[in-house]
Amino acid sequence: MALPLHFAIDFGMHSLKLVNLSKKGNSWELKNIGSIQTPPETLNNYKEEQKTLLVEAVKSLVAESKVPYKEVAVALPENAVFSRVLTIPKVSDAEVTDAVYWQLKQFLPYPIEDVQSDFTALSVDPSGQRKMLAVAAPKKLVELYVEILERAGLVPVAIESETLSILRSIKYAQEIKDAVVLDFGANSTDMAIMKDGELFFSQSIATGSDLLTKALVNEFQLSYAQAEEYKRIYGMRSDAVDGKIRNAMKPVLDMILTEVMRGIEFYKTEVGTLPPNLAMLSGEAALLPALPEYLESVLGYDAQLADPWRPIVVPNNIAEIVSKSSPAFTVAIGLCLKEE
Ligand SMILES: Nc1ncnc2c1ncn2[C@@H]1O[C@H](COP(=O)(O)OP(=O)(O)OP(=O)(O)O)[C@@H](O)[C@H]1O
Ligand SMILES: [Mg+2]
Questions:
Q1: Same structural domain for residues 219 and 327?
Q2: How far does the centroid of ligand 2 lie from the alpha carbon of residue 185, in Å?
Q3: Is residue 183 part of a domain?
């Protein structure tokens, strides 16, 4: 079903990011953009007081960005979404739904009655065995997002997982179909493996960039603001301040990378092939200086920053802001590009 004209909001732990693109012929043009700090503790929070704070934040973001319509697409945080590739033995087309249901029921960490699920066919091998991607989200969480948006005066037209939005962005902007995608956020790092343009594996790693800042606070007795500044200026550069900043943050990044390598191993066993050896980095926290070089040295992969803006026409007066925050809007852009 074709989606109506809509804009997008990415609900992040650190900030809410809004993007509105409009399609002209075959190209997309940026019409509205904005971001606002997420009020603390309000994301995925069912308490009335927190809900109200989040609704107010959404309202101001929408008002400041001056989006001309109410239809909106949003992404659910990856850590709240369950996704898994299922292997379905040869069955008739009519039996596929049942087969998926029983397998999903077995793998889900919560009752199947409590989730909203969806699946897509990835491949069929010559013996008739199918690989299917099942994605499930708690109904309660979907309802929470719908409530927040409606209370902010908006009309939700699509809700999907962050990872699917990111993959759509990368495919469209960079014509890349095979990659290990790492989305660096404030509180988590989400990993996805894309093969032939389809999602084959995803996991949310509960370590994000805020822990890098905290590592600097602890190591050098800095204020949080000062540590944040050092993180953004020096990052993982080994040539700066004798590599001291890098060394203090390294254990945190290595924790993330250990999980990434586990994900890669899991993929190898489940899918039976080597994953693509390109890492695409998204999320604002991917702006950490020298992060791609560090990942290349540890993983042995090529690593590059996602550039979701590449094919999008951006007005001159904001081109500089946009280019500086390039990978930060990957989710929101992917949601705008969703057409069905
Ligand atoms: N230039 C930069 N260099 C390094 N880190 C940065 C830079 N700019 C922002 N960050 C870090 O990025 C994080 C915020 O990233 P982002 O906005 O993508 O998170 P989020 O989407 O709100 O959070 P999440 O995805 O965890 O819900 C913060 O930890 C911040 O310190
Ligand atoms: Mg994010």
A1: no
A2: 5
A3: no
Q: Report which protein residue has its CA nearest ligand 1's atom 28.
A: 186
The reply to whether 36 and 157 lie within a common domain is: yes
* Ligand 1 neighbours by CB, cut-off 6 Å: 12-15, 77, 185-188, 208-210, 213, 228, 231-232, 283-285, 287-288, 328
- CA 192 – CA 278 distance, rounded (Å): 12
Torsion of CA 271, 94, 339, 149, to 10 degrees: -90
In a domain, 195, yes or no: no
**pLDDT value of position 125:** 85
Domain that holds residue 273: 210-302
> Is position 198 within any domain?
no
* Distance, CA of 185 to CA of 191 (rounded, Å): 11
For residues 87 and 62, state if they share a domain.
no
Q: How many angstroms separate the CA atoms of 183 and 306, rounded?
A: 10
pLDDT over threshold 90, residue 190: yes
Q: Point out the ligand 1 atom lying closest to the alpha carbon of residue 231.
A: 4
pLDDT of residue 279: 97
Q: Tens of pLDDT along 114-132?
A: 999 988 888 888 898 998 8
- Tell me how far apart the alpha carbons of residues 202 and 180 are, in angstroms, rounded to a whole number: 10
Helices (DSSP H) in 187-329: which residue ranges?
Answer: 210-220, 224-234, 244-271, 291-299, 316-324
